[in-house]
């Protein structure tokens, strides 16, 4: 009898262990199923978003090519350095398109990667300009100065020997002029650059005088600081 009672107790203990193990397996399986449900739910949301996006794009009709700036474009310059990108037809009318005759200049700056708005290009005749070359020491010009940059022209008066005159302070000669050419090979004994600027006709004398009587500094005008042309 004692042996039977002992075996019965052992059986109860084994059954308890098996029940505990089964409960643990059930819990793990439940967590696994919950994880699977979350994964499938996330996948379903992504697929739904993709389908919705396709439907919305389909409502806009066929895509149309428009022009995008591949580099920063300054106000007052011609819109060059453009590439074609695809946009929905519903918004394409506001931007320049490939093959379109672009005869004009930008009224405001256009950032790199930005679509070029039609409203940004003005085709009215420009004010008369002249191309004026000024000598500039490389240390007195912006790094990477290039055609199309917009700069302010400053001059510091020098004496007969070429040294900065006593008490002479830099003064602004002309603001926001466009660089049309940059000759970076050594010019003269000083090894300076020859920078060509598009100067309004009535200001040519001031720029020429600055180049002959002092040290010229060119200061870049960032696109965000350029004035909007009318």
Task: Write a structural description.
With 230 residues, the protein is an alpha+beta fold. The chain folds into three domains: 1-59; 63-122, Type Iii Antifreeze Protein Isoform Hplc 12 (Alpha-Beta Complex); 129-225. It is 31% helix and 29% strand. The radius of gyration is 36 Å and the shape is elongated. The protein starts with a helix and ends in a 10-residue tail after the last strand. The relative contact order is 0.14. The model has no long low-confidence stretch (mean pLDDT 76).
Biggest sheet, in brief?
5 strands, antiparallel
Helix content: 25-40%
CA radius of gyration: 36 Å
Mean pLDDT: 76
Percent of residues in beta strands?
A: 25-35%
What general outline do the C-alpha atoms trace? elongated
Low-confidence stretches: none
Strand elements, count:
9
